[in-house]
Specification:
Layout: H1 7-10, H2 21-25, H3 54-64, H4 70-90, H5 101-125, H6 130-138, H7 140-151, H8 158-177, H9 183-205, H10 213-232, H11 237-240, H12 250-276, H13 279-300, H14 307-329
Helix pairs in contact: 3-12, 4-5, 4-10, 4-12, 5-9, 5-10, 6-8, 6-9, 6-14, 7-9, 8-14, 13-14
Length: about 325
């Protein structure tokens, strides 16, 4: 008698065909392709080749393998990042100084928002294509622009207002035009947007000279590991993940390790780039990275789009270009 998963589990994981579900109900529990025979591989239209950054590898784990246990996955990501950052600090490769307890405590609200960013982002990426997610992600700038204009009463250029409007229109219209509309995916994407916007506002208001960007990231990592580890059992992820069919496969382990390593090196490179360039140059490099990621992702992951969806993505891109221009010119 064959050893395999029940039909209801087979239908929910990649690599299974529905053609044999009727046979399964009749007593044969052998799916068309068992996870113990062949692990899902990179292939054209789904995944393949080197990813532009750690986001694609994380998306492979989240959306292709369907490891949708964010407290565990993001807990692993932040644990790897925190350990590597700690080792780099002790070896003298990076400089971290956590001398003021009051500054650390005052940064904890931002760390809580950071957990919201990565948790909601993980949920959203498991359901939405990368270009769609990035379009919603970019709209967080609308929150910071609105805060500067209406709360702080700062003088805001017309070009920056237009940039924010483009980003807002793209993010709002995209769910209405998306042929792959997923309400839960967009819900988590907008929660991610709100947390990211609040994080940027907090970062703008909170400017102690004693904590560098790496200091802040180190605190974020430690806080995230503690909070996500504590939440994994109440959220039900801790024991539910034991039923994940690819839990003991090397490709799953390799993808998780690669995602953690790439995420850390991307964070480190971003921090160094931010400190060694002007805000305009950093915005330009960040925009270029997003364009490369969004352009290459359809080659790695399946995405269906119509003219309206593409138009929303283009509008969001125009808004991002205007934002980069305002940063470079200081307007």
């Amino acid at each position: 008698m064959c050893k395999s998963l029940p039909a209801f589990q087979c239908a929910s994981y990649p690599g299974y065909s529905d053609t044999n579900l009727d046979d399964t109900r009749k007593g044969c529990k052998t799916p068309s392709r068992s996870p113990f025979q062949k692990f899902p591989r990179w292939r054209p239209g789904l995944t393949g080749g080197p990813e532009p950054n750690g986001r694609a590898r994380a998306t492979y784990v989240l959306s292709v393998l369907k490891f949708t246990y964010p407290t565990l996955f993001q807990g692993w990501q932040t644990l790897v990042g925190g350990l590597l950052l700690h080792v780099s600090w002790k070896l003298g490769w990076v400089e971290i100084s956590l001398c003021s307890r009051s500054d650390i405590l005052s940064w904890l609200p931002a760390s809580a928002l950071f957990v919201g960013i990565i948790y909601a982002g993980s949920r959203a990426l498991s359901r939405l294509p990368i270009p769609v997610f990035l379009t919603v992600h970019n709209a967080a700038e609308v929150i910071t622009c609105g805060f500067q204009k209406f709360v702080q009463k700062e003088q805001t250029s017309l070009l920056k207002v237009c940039s924010s409007l483009f980003l807002l229109v793209a993010a709002v219209c995209l769910p209405l035009c998306d042929t792959q509309f997923d309400p839960n995916g967009y819900l988590w994407a907008f929660i991610h947007l709100i947390c990211l916007g609040a994080y940027k506002v907090f970062h703008k208001l909170w400017k102690p000279s004693s904590l560098s960007d790496l200091d802040q990231q180190y605190i974020n990592y430690v806080f995230s590991v503690v909070l996500l580890a504590s939440a994994s059992h109440p959220a039900g992820d801790l024991f539910t993940a034991l039923d994940f069919p690819f839990l003991y496969f090397y490709r799953f382990h390799g993808s998780c390790c690669a995602s953690g390593l790439l995420g850390f090196f991307l964070m480190l490179h971003t921090a160094k780039l931010k400190n060694s360039t002007t805000s305009g140059q950093y915005a330009a490099w960040s925009f270029l990275a997003k364009v490369i990621t969004a352009s290459l992702s359809p080659l790695f992951f399946v995405m269906t789009a119509n003219i309206l969806t593409i138009s929303c993505l283009v509008i969001g891109g125009v808004g991002e270009v205007l934002l980069v221009y305002t940063e470079r010119t200081g307007t």
